[in-house]
Design goal:
Number of domains: 2
CATH architecture of the largest domain: 3-Layer(aba) Sandwich
Largest sheet: 6 strands, parallel
Strand order of the largest sheet: 5-4-1-6-7-8
CATH topology of the largest domain: Rossmann fold
Shape: elongated
Number of strands: 8
Low-confidence stretches: none
Order of helices and strands: EEHHHHEHEHEHEHEEH
Number of helices: 9
Amino acid sequence: MTASSRLCVFDLDGTLADTAPDLVSALNHVLAAEGLPQADFPTARAFVGHGARVLIERAHRAHDIELDDARALELTEQFVGYYAQNIADGTVLFPHVLEAMEEMAEDGWAFAICTNKREGLARQLLDALDLTERFDAICGGDTFAERKPNGQHILKTIEAADGNPSRCVMVGDSPPDVLAAKDANVPVIAVSFGYSNEPIGSLDPDVIIDTFADLQEKADALVPSR
């Protein structure tokens, strides 16, 4: 990147890619091993952006089971092991993602990933989707000491991509994305089709888009070219 380059920082799950089918499948694998009923897909989908452990804990809480720390960690590792082996069975990019990125790249935008997904899993998924080479930095929930909604997660991702926070925009789908962007003082575009378990507009992002076909126009308005 050059000093004047613009950087678009993306969340991954629920923003660039519809990963819920594979994440919920991994959850149901864990639940089946526990002798518990399968999770309801619409309900589970709303919590996949909060990380595997939260997803597992919420699914058990629905059956009045409170997991202690050791058991939650054990089940999370079981989840991750299954998910890693089936990471892109049902995952697809949301419509117009590639077109938007190609058009933005032609206008000098660079890209980075800031996700609460483990970095190794994020890289594995991006490899499977043939996207890895498009990003100047790929930072997960275990890359730094901080993770979203802490704004340092975004700021350190920007630094890893050799970006300038004043020339960046964050794109996400859920409260951790919007809250982290606000904490980092970076403008944020929220997608309306992601995994938020509350109305995304209630968090007051700078812009909400219903399709990636609108991304470049909105990003250009927030971070004009020089």
